[in-house]
Amino acid sequence: MTATGRDVVAIEVVEDFSSSARCDEGFLQVRRLRCRNRRTDGSSSPIYRVDVIDRPRLDAVAVVIHRQGERGMEILTRTNLRPAAYFRTGKPMTVPDGRSHLRVEEIVAGLLEPTDQGEAGLKRRAAEEALEEAGLSVAPEEVRLLGAPFFVVPGILSEKIFLAAVDATGRAQGEPKGDGSPLEEGGALRWRPVEEALEACRSGEIQDAKTEMGICRLLAERALASKSP
Hints:
- By secondary structure, the chain is an alpha+beta fold.
- It is built from 4 helices and 11 strands; from the N terminus they run E-E-E-E-E-H-E-E-H-E-E-E-E-H-H.
- It has a single domain (2-8, 58-227), classed as Alpha-Beta Complex (Nucleoside Triphosphate Pyrophosphohydrolase).
- Helices cover 22% and strands 27% of the residues.
- The strands form 2 sheets. Strands 1, 4, 5, 6, 7, 8, 9, 10 and 11 form a 9-stranded mixed sheet that branches. A two-stranded antiparallel sheet has the order 2-3.
- The longest helix has 19 residues, at 209-227.
């Protein structure tokens, strides 16, 4: 595992201003709505409350970076600071896992910008994230899209994630430049054999859903290609 920054041992809460902050400001915006269902016969359901979380950019792209190495196909993951996961500590859990979730291992990902339009925009953003977070220079034309986007938590979160893949076999890997965020401190990159990475997802060592889904779609793509004449 290659470190890409200083080590971090904890995240300190300097101030909790939840009670005084507006829900329509900050990185995440919470829309608190009163809704009712309208039916085909003209009737309506009772009014109920709905909370909807929006990110500053509606959707994101996640990139399965892979290469052929001595151990066969390998997948690149990145370990990042994830405050929401970390602050589970001390809360009652259905099945306690005894783990600190200061960092979460996952594939490279990033928010789509307003200029990232259409398939070309998705591929361009995927290539930029590969360079920024993994230190790998790839052309947008080398990026492959892995099927349709998907919701992560459709009950509350409006975001969809687009999955993409790129082959980094034989490419020199430089130092990721990052975006300067404190959440990138102590980040680390790791190449895992694809079977090991998938098993790590299923065993709970890797707990990021888009990573497991991305690996599964990559393997499905490879299986389909092997059946082609």
